[in-house]
Amino acid sequence: MNILILGGDGYLGWPTAMHLSAQGHSVAVVDNYFRRKACDELQSPPLLPVPDLGERTRLWQAASNHTVHCAEGDLCVWEFMQDCFTGKAFGLDWTPDAVVHYAEQPSAPYSMMDRDKAAFTLSNNLMSTMNLVQAVKEFNPACHIVKLGTMGVYGTPDIDIEEGYLDVDYKGRSHRFLYPKTPGSLYHLTKAQDGDMLYFYCRIWDIRVTDLNQGPVYGIFTDQSDDEQLATIFNYDDVFGTVVNRFLVQAVAGIPLTVYGKGGQTRGYLDLRDTLACVELAILNPAQAGEYKVYNQITETFTVNELAELILEGGKQAGIDVTVKNIENPRREAEEHYYNPTYTGLKDLGLEPHLLTSDKVARMLEFVARHKGRIREDAIMPKVKWT
Ligand code: USQ
């Protein structure tokens, strides 16, 4: 298949590009380097230095003999989106059969930082999605859009969370609605809005969409990135680092794990390798014309306190002394709540999860410890408050 990856330089994008290319697909990636520029601006470099896309694709070609095409550009600019769909951006005669859409501002704290960052998050996330739909309609209406969504669109309702839809019986009649959305940051709100937009265009233009409502991802290793130069962007700062990755670095740096508030916040988590497997499964099992498929892309749930406990256990195995400190929660979120999401769809398609164990934590800690000298301690404490 011809697969276009929007946001192909990011934490998930680059590992996805290598994974799909290793399966023999023709892969092209585009990115505007937002994440790199924001990390520079916030003085929060990733743990490992990351070569640019041109260099990454050259290194990948040398390691695997597979070619990944790449281009730099802004997908909110319609002409650039058009060039990606005609292949002009890559010097190819090419139209994608599937598009993986990661090209959104992915950080909740970033979206809550100030007006400009809120405005950027809103316009970037919605305009890139709208341009994508327009390009699919114009260049290949059969093209399957696989959009990365988030479990955060559901919030933490006091009833079970279904996989995308809710059947409502009301006054003797029944209807199937998208599951109600109660996002907890402006970023999460944009992911609710882009989902609504895609569902709308499925109904109106019969496009094909799969929305992957993913939980926080952790990890650094994938089958393709043993070479550290091919490794993903691994952030541990308060804006772009997800909680497990942050805790791994805090443990190695000797900083008490920053549990926000009471630590009873429960989320669904998954290993980076499982993200790649899920995206591949979604591509191989496309939505029908007019169908908006939704999967909950998580493999297990934890409270923040349970995660901290696992890092403590892994630390013991790795010979690292880990401590934990509950600090004031910079976010507005429930710290003790009911949480029971369904996540059977991807397992039914064949997903075999890599679960989070203390052994795995110990291996990741050992990896981070080899790069301890690069940890910027000033990037760790949370600086963005929701209120
Ligand atoms: N948390 C801590 N201490 C920390 C960092 C986070 O207690 O040092 C807590 C947060 O308050 C939250 C939970 O850990 O309750 C998860 O936080 P996170 O920063 O790992 O995840 P989040 O901000 O929700 O966003 C991340 C990704 C985002 C993705 C989302 C999936 O950045 O792109 O959409 O995970 S979900 O959380 O299911 O919405």
What does this structure look like?
- The longest helix has 25 residues, at 115-139.
- The termini are far apart.
- This protein is α/β, with parallel strands linked by helices.
- The strands form 4 sheets. A 7-stranded parallel β-sheet has the order 3-2-1-4-5-8-12, with helices on both faces. The protein has a 3-stranded mixed β-sheet with strand order 9-11-13.
- The protein has a single domain, classed as Rossmann fold (3-Layer(aba) Sandwich).
- The chain is built from 12 helices and 14 strands.
- α6 packs parallel to α7 (186-205) and α8 (243-253) packs across α12 (358-370).
- 37% of the residues lie in helices and 19% in strands.
- The model has no long low-confidence stretch (mean pLDDT 97).
- It binds sulfoquinovose-uridine-C1,5'-diphosphate.
- Residues 106-108, 150-152, 188, 214-216, 242-243, 246, 258-260, 265, 267, 304, 331, 333 line the site of sulfoquinovose-uridine-C1,5'-diphosphate.
